[in-house]
Amino acid sequence: MYGPKLGEILNQASALLIVRVSGALWASTEMGGVKGFNPAKQVKGRKRHLMTDTLGLILFVVVCAASIADSDGAEYIFHETGGRFPRLRTVLVDQGYKSWLVEFAKHWFGIVVDIVSRSPSQREFIVQPQRWKIERTFGWLGWSRILSKEYERTTESSESNIYLASIRLMVRRLVSSPT
């Protein structure tokens, strides 16, 4: 056999999850709703926090104001998903998350949070291990027209649209996969 067995893939996918905030912020339209200002990027709008497995499939979504820190969004994800993924052992995050999140997740949920960071001497773009999978997921979601701008008044509606776009991607893969 040329690759890992299906059972090995499923065990790896369930033991490692990736959490990331979308790189771009979506400005709220005149519709209103929750929005905030991110001083680091000088942008007002909303952030999309995603938790995916190693296959890039979305497991949990949180949409919040841009003023919410990345680590606070991840803390909310940990609280909401506590106990849903019993085989989860490791969560990968980027360097935008604070180190207190590592101790928090280990103490309260028994999960190892690994902050994937690039070397200080690195100037050009280099693909980080495992991080490209969630970046690919954001790229897939970018093809969905309803997610191109923030049209929704409530964050719950925005989260639902992300789940719908992800379901559409999975259904298209199932239909086009060879049997």
Describe this structure in words.
- The chain has 179 residues and is α/β, with parallel strands linked by helices.
- The chain has helices at 6-15, 70-81, 100-109, 131-142, 155-176; strands at residues 16-21, 36-38, 43-53, 58-65, 90-94, 112-116.
- The chain has one domain: Nucleotidyltransferase, domain 5 (2-Layer Sandwich).
- The protein has five helices and six strands; from the N terminus they run αββββαβαβαα.
- Strands 1, 2, 3, 4, 5 and 6 form a six-stranded mixed beta sheet that branches.
- β3 (43-53) and β4 (58-65) form a beta hairpin.
- The longest helix has 22 residues, at 155-176.
- The protein is globular, with a radius of gyration of 17 Å.
- Mean pLDDT is 79; it is low at 1-13.
Reading off the top of the CATH hierarchy, the class is best stated as Alpha Beta
Strand content: 15-25%
Look up the CATH topology: Nucleotidyltransferase, domain 5
| CATH architectural group | 2-Layer Sandwich
How far is the N terminus from the C terminus? 18 Å
What would the principal axes of the Cα set say about the shape?
globular
In total, the number of domains comes to 1
- Biggest sheet character: 6 strands, mixed
CATH superfamily: Ribonuclease H-like superfamily/Ribonuclease H
Level of helix content?
A: 25-40%
Structural class: alpha/beta
Please compute the radius of gyration using only Cα atoms.
Answer: 17 Å
The total count of strands amounts to: 6
Low-confidence stretches: 1-13
